[in-house]
Amino acid sequence: MAIATERQKPRRRWNYQQINEIGLLAIIALLYLGFWLYAHNFMTFNNQVTILRDAAFIGIAAWGATLIIISGDIDISVGPTVAFISVMLAYMLKSEVIPLPLCFIFAILLGGALVGIAGILRAYFEVPSFIGTLGLWSALGGLALYMTQAIPVSYPGNAFLDLLDGRILGIPTAAVIMLLLCALFVFVSRKTAFGRAVYAIGGNPTAAHLSGIKVAQIRVMLFVIAGMLAAVTAILITARNGIGDAGLSRSGLEFDVIAAVVIGGTSLSGGRGSVIGTLLGIFIISLIGNGLVLLGIDSFLQPVVRGVIIVAAVLLNILAGRYNARSNLKA
């Protein structure tokens, strides 16, 4: 009887996301081991703080990008949006006319409104999100450079901005904000009707519409949220650099964000992904960038090495997902 009971126990099946996250943790462990052995000063406290800060600048924007990609769309306007908001914020601070809280509020609302344009084009005019955000990428990057003539915009010192560039209990303020927003978006994606609707739209937008989900409104909301998060990133980077920098439009931030989301297991075709997976992808991107610098890899070769590692990480996760699918079919 005991044997029969044992045989009846269902075998635990791992889903794709669980396997993906375990694989990402293993990759992070291997990166730490490799850089610890070969990269001088990699494991120092100050360097770990640097990694956290770099991760925050990618991560805050990545939460919005994760939801957009889960819904089956994409946003490539992050870098120029951050640059334009950074410049606008620096001009407002330089004027010393607008109170600081209003500067932040205006910057966040402006980010939401600008990227929201791409959402409206996608939702109501069927303009592919890649094209809409590509237009923003070009327009906002050009505007930021035109307004400043590619010259950084300085502003008077500010105690609150210094705090944003400081630390809370030894952790960079930007990283604390990133982790708090991560917790918020984990809750939103897993526990709310809005989060479930995002997955439904990514899986089958027609079925989602027929089931009563307001597909167009949610698509616009996703891009507005992404724009607001890009503005938060712009505020933190401006506080870090002490200037409004139009050059951020050519920093490639959008590609780091998309790479982190894809490495995290979010499908570019939509309907699958997680914020936790993106968090792990962010740390992989940040670790690779930091470790390559400490190893003294030529700056022109760093993108090549990073690209190879990123493709390898994604490939391993895809193979793990296929293996899991075959295992579940056999079960």
Structure description:
The protein has 331 residues and is mainly α. It has one domain (17-322): ABC transporter involved in vitamin B12 uptake, BtuC, CATH 1.10.3470. Helices cover 75% and strands 2% of the residues. It contains 14 helices and four strands. It has helices spanning 2-8, 16-38, 45-70, 78-95, 100-125, 129-148, 159-164, 173-191, 193-203, 205-210, 215-241, 253-263, 275-294, 302-330; strands at 153-154, 167-168, 171-172, 243-244. The strands form two sheets. Strands 1-4 form a two-stranded antiparallel sheet. The longest helix is centred in the C-terminal third of the chain and has 29 residues, at 302-330. The radius of gyration is 21 Å and the shape is globular. The two termini are 23 Å apart. 44% of the residues are buried.
Main β sheet profile: 2 strands, antiparallel
Low-confidence region ranges: 1-6
Report the end-to-end length measured between terminal Cα atoms.
23 Å
**Strand fraction band?**
under 5%
Please state the CA-atom Rg, rounded to the nearest Å: 21 Å
Q: What is the tally of helical segments?
A: 14
Instruction: Provide the spatial order of strands within the biggest beta sheet.
Output: 1-4
Write the element-wise H/E pattern from the N-terminal end onward.
HHHHHHEHEEHHHHEHHH
Please give the CATH class: Mainly Alpha
Multimeric status of the protein: single chain
Overall spatial form: globular
Mean pLDDT: 91
Number of domains: 1
In the CATH hierarchy, the third-tier topology is known as ABC transporter involved in vitamin B12 uptake, BtuC
Instruction: State the helical fraction.
Output: over 70%
Count of strand segments: 4
Helix and strand content put the structural class at mainly alpha
What CATH architecture do you see? Orthogonal Bundle
